[in-house]
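Q: Entry one of two.
A:
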Amino acid sequence: MSKSSEPLWPLIEVLQRQIVPQVQRHGMNNVIVGAPFWQQFQRREAVLPEDVFITRQTLKSKKTAIKSRSSGGTKSLVNAVWPKDGLCSTIMPVLMFVVGGRVALPLGDYVVHCRSGHALLIPAGTPHPSGSLLCTESSHAGNEFNDMFSVIPWGRGVACWLNHTKNGEHWSHRTPGENCHMFSTKANFYLETLTEEAVSRASHFQQHCDGLLLALMTLLLREIEEQHAFQPILLTETAIDPSTPPNLLEQNPITRAQAYINSYLASPLTIDQVAAHVFMSRAYFTRQFRKTTGKSFIQYVTERRLQEAKVLLHDTNWSIEKISEFVGITPTRLRHIFFEYQRQTPSAYREQSRQ
């Protein structure tokens, strides 16, 4: 393995030693497919994997919709929250593998209790925990920890990462090599289609899902091993979890705006669009954004795209055209930004950064 791929070894190890062998042996048999609420889950009459059980819970709060009000064809990842319960629903599916310990995962008005070796497929619109909510199975005293591998659609590809909960603390994206993005429309398609098949339960869905799940996980492993995945600099200890932002309604609007920008770098981004997303007028948003970040909106977006492009130039062999598409600008504009900020071309930066 080359030096540039070593930081992603934790993900490779989990996929090689646990997840891919598990999927090869069991297919979808150890995957619990969630539903928004207990009655819908019960109507599926699905057979639960061994050592998995369900308990009921009463929600403490009502659903609060998060209206996207965005333009340009993009939307907020989160479309609703249950504030007192620490739950939210998203516009995309989440696939989670338990790779250590035991988990009690709330989904709407019920809780799925499972252990290492099980997985959960959470369709879009299903209430599930935010990144700040502990999901450790507390009934197992002295063994209150869990490790989870998650994957979600992300732009034109997917993102995957490891979560950890131990001794009352929950964290993710803190350790190098434990999260990555990959520009893979195929992986995105596999995950979306897997979810559609699992929810529809059309004829022969089990065989289709088994094949899609194995194709997805082996593709993730290959892309990471062959250095087609990269660790994005936007996912830091203080960054917002890409699938389920903690305490969404309590975050500073500018913090939410920054998270939105980071999520949609590959899309056209305008001040009006982002201001509408955080429910602020254009003028007020412009003032507050500069006051909080010390930069104009255009400057912030440009520098974020430059940062992402620099990571991709160093960590991948992608062409300038592919990198430009990933960060949401034209190749000509990318070259202009590099000359303005770095006084060199992207190709020259790549060569220099690797020396």
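Q: Entry two of two.
A:
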Amino acid sequence: MNFGKLLRYVCGAVVTGTMAMAGFGQEAAKQPQKTRAATPGGRHVYYLGPMGRGSMNAAGIGENRVGTSGNATFDTTAVSDGQGSDENGGGLPLWTFRVHSSRDGHSYPGAMVGSNPFTDPETTAVPTVVIPIRIKTKTVGTKVDAMTGAITTQPGDTTFDPGAPDNVCLSAPNNVPATLVKQSPMFTPTAFSFGGTFVGKTEYNDAFQRANFWRVSKKEREEYHVLLKPSVFLQPIEMDPPDVYGLALTDGAVLETILGTTTPFCAPLGIVDINWFDTMLTSTVIPELRERGIINPGTFPIFMVYNVFWAQPIDNIFACCIGGYHGTTGFPIPTQTYSPADFDSTGVFGTGAADTTILAHEVDEWMNDPMISNPTPPWGNTGQVMGFCQANLEVGDPLSGTNIAPITMPNGFTYHLQELAFFSWFFGGPSIGVNGWFSNNGTFMTDAGPPCH
């Protein structure tokens, strides 16, 4: 596939266009003990900290039929056709549910990717396209004010290329980030056991989802899968943010001093304005990929960056950092879901954001809340949701920074994957997840408790 037109179009739009979009989620940390909500057609961001935490969540969808499981009463439909209309290019395969929560006694609707594990468990394969994004910044941060967070900058070009060897932060032969993602447990069948219970040799997202509904039925355990297949990895495309929307920290000592850490920081680290970047994706890149038939509403595109985080604004370290997000392009129906995620080897956030940790967070949040529209009883004060409440089915947020045991793959690289919260943690016990747990590595042994206020 020749991406010349796409590259020129993106770069041309970067140079000549002015991008603006309302901010999402950045104010969350300033609003303690409030429940965050939003409408579908936005994005849900993963704040890493320690420079800032927050989140984006959403409210309600779905109508359904009846089934039961455990203590909770589930009104679950058979698999919705989820295919959209032919003229719109189809849509994701979705199943919908309504669950009566034991946490607050209320009923909640929702929709997930895949087949219905309660009534029609089967294998669902979602075509997935991984698009590496080569980022070229034109500004270098030279100093950070420890009191205000302001970053002093000067002109300077830096390239962050997921498709190129990195012999500084990585080691040969495992020195090409895009190749490492392809060979990771996110896309390569791997034997997963949680608490001694073998859940399958499969992709991590599928292993989690099988564990999520493990106690529903024996048939579910044998036949239920949600796979990212076929997965296609494209050559990198390029985005060149103007100097006001992108910068690079090329001196590791600068950031180490501000963070007050002795942990080595492998430079450079890029910071890109999330509103500029997301506008470029939704107004230019995604439409171009759809026009060329590379993606459609039934495809899951993942936009991979390397050692690049998002923020808004970019010139204050306290506004950083967002490691990834998942979103939808909004209307018309069917929508296009998508997810950008960073593969990090800088080490600035430790193993809590290393390599495929962020990707694991975002892919499973997409799978469990694809339209950013699944409400839950309010919960909070855990993971990245500290000092405020959330009310949505975002399975990564309650355990941001907490991983399962590292996995060394046949390529010799040791991967990190985030632990994730089960369906039952949000809606109430007893758990329908593996081992009666409320998260796939057993960090949560009870549900989220009384609704957060």
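A: Comment on entry two: Residues 4-59+128-436 form one domain. Helices lie at 4-16, 177-182, 204-212, 218-223, 252-259, 274-291, 357-368, 423-427.
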